[in-house]
Design goal:
By secondary structure, this protein is an alpha+beta fold. The chain has 13 helices and ten strands.
Length: 382
């Protein structure tokens, strides 16, 4: 819904026409689509982009930046905007005027919100709404069912969206507060993991599109559930690959091994490989960037099937926190000493095996470690 910056569409004296235009709809537009738009937006088309900007008290240039950031298509100077569009402009501009956000930050807010909700809306229409609007009775058209279903679902979905957003915002704010200093709010030390389906490209040549889509959905859903349940954060999914992060190495390690174990127990899934790195990560708009992320990706590409490779910093962090021994020899000595003193031996969760050093493109020589789970008896699991 972005615009050109000509400023056409205003009245001759510069005033904004406050009345809805009965002929604002394009004659070629589908009547049901227009009714659905009115239902979902809760208001009639009333303004051209120039009129909306004037009514909101912002420049056409700034309004265009906000609309483009939200991902809305160019509409020229068609009368297609509503009171809600004006209010959104006022709110964003008001945050800038009050000094709560810089103009650049306000544009980022618009862009991140637009990108996230665009994907959500596409998924809901393609997968959710489409299935619910199958005609329940012979003779009823898809069109006849769509409007009442949307009318019933809209308030519930809106309330649920706000609820989930508030919960996620509370969790994210808590992590920032616990970061300790201002630098860690943007550049933080995190464990970053990539999980990649092996041989996915070959699968795309052999499987039907619907079957392939079901496999990808099952992989993404399973991965998202495991990451969330263990306290990690799913950053994004890329079809055959998921990227996640965790505040501590132990959580990231547990997630990685659970992913491998879960996929290995599913005969419909290809093998999985995981790479994890630990270090400073830059976060922007919900995504993560930096050398640590690149290293995790490279480790994934060289990991064996159904295995987890980690970098040296990650291995050292597991050792520091007592989640893994420095070596199996050290673990055996600690166990013997504890038994001699009549004490409980250390209970390590993970085992680390150093692999051959190797050059990694763009990152120099790295020493990967194979991460495995230790058995209940204290030794490395087979």
């Amino acid at each position: 819904m972005t615009v050109d910056d000509t400023g056409s569409g205003a009245d001759g004296d510069g005033r904004v026409d406050p009345e809805p235009a009965p002929d604002s709809a394009d004659p070629g537009e589908d009547p049901l689509a227009l009714r659905l738009e009115g239902l979902i937006l809760g208001a009639e088309r009333r303004y051209t982009p120039f009129q909306a900007a004037r009514s909101a008290g912002v420049s056409m240039e700034l309004a265009s930046r906000f609309w483009r950031a939200m991902g809305f298509a160019d509409i020229g100077q068609a009368k297609a905007l509503t009171e809600a569009d004006v209010l959104a402009l006022r709110r964003l501009a008001g945050l800038v005027e009050a000094g709560l956000l810089s103009e650049a930050m306000a544009v980022q807010v618009a862009r991140s919100t637009g990108q996230t909700t665009a994907r959500l809306a596409e998924w809901q229409i393609d997968s959710f709404l489409e299935g619910l609007t199958e005609p329940p009775e012979p003779g009823m058209t898809h069109t006849e069912v769509t409007y009442p279903i949307v009318e019933l679902l809209l308030p519930e979905l809106q309330e649920f969206l706000v609820y989930v957003w508030r919960r996620q915002l509370a969790a994210s704010a808590g992590r920032v507060v616990q970061a300790g200093d201002d630098e860690e709010m943007v550049d933080r030390r995190l464990a970053v993991g990539f999980a990649d389906l092996v041989g996915f490209t070959r699968l795309t040549r052999r499987m039907e599109e619907e079957e392939l889509g079901e496999l990808v959905e099952a992989f993404e859903t399973t991965s998202a559930d495991l990451v969330a349940a263990r306290g990690g954060r799913l950053i994004k999914t890329l079809g055959d690959e998921v990227l996640y992060a965790a505040d501590d190495a132990g959580t990231a390690a547990e997630i990685a091994l659970l992913l491998v174990e879960t996929m290995a127990n599913d005969e419909t899934m290809p093998e999985l490989r995981v790479g994890i790195a630990f270090g400073t990560v830059t976060t922007r708009m919900g995504d993560v960037f930096g050398t640590t992320v690149n290293l995790a990706s490279r480790l994934t590409s060289i990991a064996p099937k159904d295995a987890v490779l980690v970098d040296t910093a990650f291995a050292e962090e597991l050792i520091r926190t007592g989640d893994a021994p420095a070596s199996e020899a050290a673990a055996a000595e600690e166990t013997a000493a504890a038994e001699k003193e009549g004490e409980e031996p250390p209970a390590y969760r993970f085992a680390l095996q150093p692999m051959w050093q190797r050059p990694v493109r763009g990152l120099g020589v790295v020493e990967p470690w194979l991460l495995t789970r230790r058995g209940a008896g204290g030794g490395e699991s087979s």
